[in-house]
Design brief:
This protein has seven helices and no strands. By secondary structure, the chain is an all-alpha fold. It has a single domain, classed as Tetratricopeptide repeat domain (Serine Threonine Protein Phosphatase 5, Tetratricopeptide repeat), CATH 1.25.40. The two termini are 22 Å apart.
Length: 157
């Protein structure tokens, strides 16, 4: 039971990857459709063929996160570590890729500690983001501060 709960919590850590219409205030966005195994395999092949292409890595991270949100029971534990590693690779390849920093910070902010979550890691990533994208960095730091204080954007850590 604890493992299922942990997997469900991991799923909500990848919310920033969801694209589409914004939900009404107070509503969670509908999960994106689960990518097929063929889509994930194709993205992995693209990364393998283009290991220095940050777009290929970002596409793979997005597919992993969509898979986790769409089917948390199966994909949460399967893709959490790989998603973090892939986002770190995007940052390594493209150090000013805001969406990778945001996704990584969101993961750290929302994942439980047993799954790699850490408010300190989230804050560190947000500060790195603020060095080159002040607006996004400040927004993310404010969200983290609200979380620390138990504000409306989440539970206290």
């Amino acid at each position: 039971m604890k493992k299922i709960l942990l997997i469900c919590l991991i799923v909500f850590a990848v919310a920033p990857f969801h694209a589409g219409e914004k939900p009404a205030q107070g509503e969670r966005p509908a999960p994106p459709p689960e990518p097929t195994l063929e889509e994930i395999q194709a993205a992995k092949a693209e990364v393998r063929d283009n290991p220095n292409d940050p777009d290929a890595h970002m596409k793979l991270a997005v597919l992993f996160s969509h898979a986790m949100r769409a089917n948390p029971m199966v994909n949460g534990a399967l893709y959490a570590d790989t998603t973090v590693a892939t986002l770190k690779k995007v940052i390594q390849l493209d150090p000013q890729r805001s969406e990778a920093y945001i996704g990584l910070a969101q993961f750290y902010l929302n994942a439980p500690p047993r799954a790699g979550g850490s408010i300190d890691k989230a804050e560190e990533v947000a500060q790195q983001l603020a060095e080159f994208d002040e607006e996004q960095g400040k927004r993310l730091l404010a969200k983290i501060e609200a979380r620390k204080n138990g504000g409306s954007s989440g539970r206290p850590q």
